[in-house]
Structure formats: C-alpha cells, structure tokens
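Re: beginner question about structure tokens

> Can someone show what the tokenized structure looks like for a real chain? I only ever see the sequence side.

Sure, here's an example I had lying around. Input first:
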Amino acid sequence: MESGRDVSVSGLMVEAASRLMGTPYVAGTLDTDPVNEELRIYLTKTDCILFVETCLDLALTVKDSKGRPDFVQFAWKVASTRYRCEGPWDYGDRIHYTTEWIRRQDKVLKDITVDLGGKVYDHPISFMTEHPDSYKQLRNANNIPRAALALQKISGVEAELNRTPMTFIPKSEAASVEDRIRTGDIICFVSTVEGLDIAHVAIAYVKDGKVGFIHASQAAGKVIIDPKSISEYVSSRSNLAGIKVVRPL
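And the corresponding structure tokens:
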C-alpha cells in the first residue's frame, strides 16, 4: 500500500479493498472455535464486517506508521477495533454489533447519517440475547458458565447501545443522498429484523457517476464491486430498512 503520509484513510481503505478483491466469502469467519476466543486475522477469507474492519485497520496502520507498517502494528490495530478491552478475551468481549463498532471508533470514524437528513429508527437492539441458540458460543447458557458470562456481557452492551437512538436514511430516500456519498465511506445496510441493527456492511465506491460499493458478497461468494448502486441494492431487499453512512476521518 502507498505511504500513509499524504493519502486519506478513505483512500487507503479503497486501496486495501482493491487488493482484497476476489477474497472468498466465508460466513462466521471468526467463529470456527466456539470455546477459545483468540485474535484471528485472515487475509484469505472474510465476511462482510470483517472485510470492512480489515480495510479500515490496514488503512489506519499505514497512516499511523507513516508508511512503515508491520504486521505487529496491524495486529494491535485489529485487536483495538475488535475488542472493547485488552486480552485475554472471551466471546462477550468481542464487539459484535456494528452500531457499537462505529460508536467506539469515534476518533477515526464519523457517523454522518443525520448530516445527510437521517432520522431516528425506533428499532431496539436485542437480537443476540433473544436468540442465543443462533450462536455456538452462547448456546446452553443455563448450563455452561462461559456462555452465561458472555451472554451477560452482551446483554449489558445491548442496554447501553439502546440508550442512544439509532439513526438511518430510509430506503425510499437513499437515492436522494447518493450524490453526497464519497468513495471510502462505510455503508451500513440497516436491518428490518427485530432486534438486529445492521444486516450488511460495505465500502462506497463512486465511479463514472455511479455510487456503488465494494463488499464481501455472500451471493457472489467473494469480495466484489457490486453491479448495483447503493440505492438500487437497498431498494431491492425486503430485509433492509435503509442505510447509515459513516465517514473515515
């Protein structure tokens, strides 16, 4: 990647995304071991949030190192954006909800959804505690102390997140704000599923007047530049209520 001295974080993110193009999509990339929570870093497989997280952390590593990055710096950056505390960790220490991930990166990311005309989305976050059996690490919390502790931590996170209203741009208004979206912005596709905040995450990519995006696509099975624009994508899916736009600083 280019030296970070004169390149924006957004620009470095897009460069990282271009180098990860074609990386296989693997659902639950970080959850292969339901017992041991360890720092896992993959550049050969990804899911949607891991792809965006990786691109941001690569960009920040290059920027902070003044063009002399190394893997140790990158690993430290991943740990600091993926977990809310220093290790050793358990599953409950990992940042699972994209809303929390955004809010905790307020020194390097700015949620500009309201600036673009966004509205409050009355959609409390509760999915993980309401569906613990959907997660290998939370199953049988009544009988497994490790799972019970993780579930307790996640319940506290949900309560904290719900103290601040969630905002979004409704899908019917997404096209009207596209001309204010920049390449490198993080696009969060807001979920209609009860209790779930964000269904998918991508990196905006504006070219030849089209406001598209790069993402780890489950349908394509890899990282791609999507053929749809942001507004076309969100409008075509019934499980999406709208978008959030987050800008790297």
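Each token stands for a local structural state, so reading them left to right follows the chain. Strands lie at 109-111, 119-121, 166-170, 186-191, 198-207, 210-217, 222-225, 240-248.
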